[in-house]
Amino acid sequence: MYTAAIPPVSAATEHDKAAIVIDQLNKHFDNVHALRDLSAKIFYGRLTGLVGPDGAGKTTLLRILAGLLRPDTGHVTLADFDVVTNNDAIHVISGYMPQRFGLYEDLTVIENMHLQAQLRGMDTSQQTALFTRLLDFTRLAPFTKRLSGKLSGGMKQKLGLACALMARPKVLLLDEPSVGVDPVSRQDLWHMVQELTGEGMAVIWSTAYLDEAERCDSVLLLNEGQFAFDGPPGELTQHLRNRSFRLEAVGTQRRAVLAEALDLDSVSDGVIQGASVRLVLRVGSSPEQIQMLANRTGAQLVPVPARFEDAFIDLLGGGPGGTSALAEHLPPVELTTSSAVSCHNLTKRFGDFIATDNVSFEVHKGEIFGLLGPNGAGKSTTFKMLCGLLKPTSGEAHVVGLDLRRAPGIAKAQLGYMAQKFSLYDLLSVQQNLEFSAGVYGLGSNIRRDRIEEMISIFDLRRWLSVAPGSLPLGHKQRLALACALMHRPPVLFLDEPTSGVDPITRREFWTHINGLARKGVTIMVTTHFMDEAEYCDRVAILYRARLIALDTPDALKRDAASANCPDPTMEDAFIHLIETSALTDEIEI
Question: What CATH number is attached to the domain comprising 547?
Answer without folding.
Answer: 3.40.50.300
